[in-house]
Amino acid sequence: MMKLLPIAILALAFAPHSGGVELRPVEIHDQLALQAEPGKKIALTLDACSGKFDSNMIDFLIKNRIPATIFATKKWLNRNPLGLSVIKAHLDLFDVENHGEKHIPAVIGAGKSVYGIPGEPDVVHLRREVIEGGKAVEKATGIAPHWYRSATAEYDAQAISEIDKLGYKIAGFSVNADDGATSKQRTIEKRLARVKAGDVIIAHMNKPASDSAKGLSVGLAYLLKAGFTFVRLDQVKLQESPAKAGRNLHRKS
């Protein structure tokens, strides 16, 4: 049975328009659901859209034993066999989830786009994006994914419903660390310094020429010293973060 969409998503997804009701994409903000065990738990999620493999970032995570959930597209998996081999050698740390086949935003309809990236022309194409992305992850790692994050991390109401029907949980976030790997190192450090227990961090591991690895290395080291514990999304549940509902914090990735 399809789950009911959160009230905040429904309120944002449908906006009045002179011609009737117009679907508007939303960015989903989540935090970790309340945990039975006490502790300062947070989740690091890394998008691998297309592009390359940021070995400096992954090497830092491995050295410091920091778990992360990686959202990889089929495009990235096919283009980065060396990076994939490193991740597969450390599946005790890394959980690989579904970021789609071709990195297409989850908005449906002719002419629709997010940050200039065209969306899906119809539901059939959306289903292919999700299904083929999932197959690629399972083929690459031997483990079927259960979480989905679309390109740009924005969705319209119809796409949310279809992704749910396909059996995926949509992975939102509460802290945008690197703005699609466009932020400077100091900005990333400042954002991570404000992380609180329960936060879900989004960053990117597909642009090694960016400041993402440098900023995250400093920021994550600080969080470790502050006593935070990192968890993967396959180990927890997420809940809507009402404090950030409706805020548009995610730039083109």
Q: Strand portion, in percent? A: 15-25%
Q: How are helices and strands ordered from N to C?
A: HEEEEEHEHHEEEHEEHEEHEHEE
- Low-pLDDT parts are 7-20, 245-253
Helix- and strand-based class? alpha/beta
Pfam family, one: Polysacc_deac_1
Organism: Sideroxydans lithotrophicus (strain ES-1)
GO molecular function, one term: hydrolase activity, acting on carbon-nitrogen (but not peptide) bonds
Protein name: Polysaccharide deacetylase
Structure, described:
The protein has 253 residues and is an alpha/beta fold. Helix content is 32%, strand content 21%. The chain contains eight helices and 16 strands. It has helices spanning 7-13, 55-63, 74-79, 81-88, 123-141, 157-165, 185-193, 212-225; strands spanning 14-17, 20-23, 26-27, 30-32, 41-48, 68-72, 94-98, 113-114, 117-118, 147-148, 154-155, 169-170, 175-176, 200-204, 229-231, 238-240. Strands 5, 6, 7, 13, 14 and 15 form a six-stranded parallel sheet that branches. Strands 1-2 form a two-stranded antiparallel ribbon. A two-stranded antiparallel ribbon has the order 3-11. Helix 2 (55-63) packs parallel to helix 8 (212-225) and helix 5 (123-141) packs across helix 6 (157-165).
Brief characterization of the structure:
The chain has 8 helices and 16 strands.
Give the SSE layout.
Blueprint: H1 7-13, E1 14-17, E2 20-23, E3 26-27, E4 30-32, E5 41-48, H2 55-63, E6 68-72, H3 74-79, H4 81-88, E7 94-98, E8 113-114, E9 117-118, H5 123-141, E10 147-148, E11 154-155, H6 157-165, E12 169-170, E13 175-176, H7 185-193, E14 200-204, H8 212-225, E15 229-231, E16 238-240
Parallel strand pairs: 5-6, 5-14, 5-15, 6-7, 10-12, 13-14
Antiparallel strand pairs: 1-2, 3-11, 4-16, 8-9
Helix pairs in contact: 2-8, 5-6, 7-8
